[in-house]
Amino acid sequence: MANIFTSSIGKKLIMSISGLFLIIFLLLHLTINLFSVIDSFNGTYGSADGLFQAGCDFMALPIVTVMVPVLALGFIIHIIYAGYLTMCNIQSRGGYKRYEVASKAKTESWASKNMFALGIIVLGILAFHLTHFWADMQLKEFMGSEAENPYLLLNMTFGQWWVLVIYIIWFGALWFHLTHGFWSAFQTIGWSNDIWVKRLNVIGYIFATLIFLGFVAVAVNAFLQANGIIG
User: Would you give the end-to-end CA distance of the chain in angstroms?
Assistant: First the structure.
């Protein structure tokens, strides 16, 4: 068991598996949030009958309430272990250098060389995000209180242009992080042949772009709703 935490392969495996938790978490999170955009087209934005409200109610179900913290825990492990590996590399090499991932793909891309810095940006704005949504919704429900209106939270958060800009920067950092992390995670768990490395590299860019565009659409839609431009 100790070899998992000390060997090069074991370290990569922990980063890859915990990174896959992040991918699943993002897909679930984006799906629910995109319902708010659909509500704008359906004319149900802000309504108790809206899809976004239904999605938030779904997230409050016991089975989901248990699953989300598990996914989030995998995300937290990913962040903490990335920091640990970076510190180990600094100590062992006498300077900053990312943890190595042997691959035939483009490991020398800007994203691959700055994964830790990108992770810090993602983590920093994530903390800001949690105080605006998770603390007023899932945490309140967990504590036995009534959650805030999800549409109201969207409007209050994204109603100011500078908050929208901060979030778009966050989504951009997440895009760069995912373009490298997606194929790297699958490559580490065994999909490392010439054909699949190339395919996963392309799929990673497509996945990261869809995640970026989806979250930007949610944020911009909420900004427009909050300022009465649409709705």
Answer: 56
205: Cα separation from own chain's centroid: 15
In a domain, 231, yes or no: no
Provide the greatest CA pair distance for the chain.
58
Rounded Cα distance between 74 and 82, Å, is 12
Residues with Cβ within 8 Å of 3's Cβ and at least 6 positions away in sequence, in order, are 10
* Cα pseudo-dihedral 6, 12, 15, 16, rounded to 10: -150
Angle, alpha carbons 229-214-117 (nearest 5°): 115
Answer positive or negative: Cα dihedral of 195, 199, 201, 204: negative
User: How many domains are there within the chain?
Assistant: 1
Its domain, for residue 55, covers 2-98+105-226
CA distances from 82 to 10, 16, 86, 112 (A): 13, 11, 6, 13
pLDDT digits (tens, 9 = 90+) for 57-116: 887 777 776 776 676 677 677 777 766 776 776 666 555 444 444 444 444 566 666 666
Cβ 107 vs Cβ 101: under 8 Å = yes
